[in-house]
Amino acid sequence: MVPVRTRTADTIKPAAVRDYTQNMGGVDHSVQMISYHPLHRKTVKYWEKLAFHLMTLVMVQSHILYNEHRRSHRKKTMQLQKFVMSVCRSLASIPEDQQAPPQPHDLNRLVERHFPSPIVVDDKKMQRACVVCYARAISGGDNHKTQKSKRKVTQFECSKCNKALCVHPCFEIFHTKEHYA
């Protein structure tokens, strides 16, 4: 037991507790930074969760070291999000001055005119899984067995998008909501 001075009074605490509180700064700072910009993805496979966590941890630790190096040379530090983007750009060999990536053509579905039509291949009516029903099953965190029971098969598709959609309500949802899942 060792005496410890707190803001309000002098107390006695175990030496291990005092050592932990004095030296915990780096670990807590790292965990705090991970919580601000999580790279975690929803997945059932444990090894994917572990891989994403390790990638996040490596990025945060390298960001801390990078900023320490910058401070030692009296240069301006970089925010974590900008650091991660610069690392990704350099790995993908995309120039820094390039603007944000262009919006996908998928968003044209929100402004253009679209009509349902039957799915026909070689003069035969076909069936495919509805894109919206499938996306909703995936975003709900369902596993493979429950996805099959929840997804719906349809004979209709959007004539412009070539996406299989239930006529009601999925066709309207797909063409009016940016995030239809």
Automatic annotation (TrEMBL):
<dbReference type="Pfam" id="PF13842">
    <property type="entry name" value="zf-Tnp_2"/>
</dbReference>
<dbReference type="InterPro" id="IPR032718">
    <property type="entry name" value="PGBD4_Znf_C"/>
</dbReference>
<feature type="domain" description="PiggyBac transposable element-derived protein 4 C-terminal zinc-finger">
    <location>
        <begin position="114"/>
        <end position="175"/>
    </location>
</feature>
<protein>
    <submittedName>
        <fullName>PiggyBac transposable element-derived protein 4-like</fullName>
    </submittedName>
</protein>
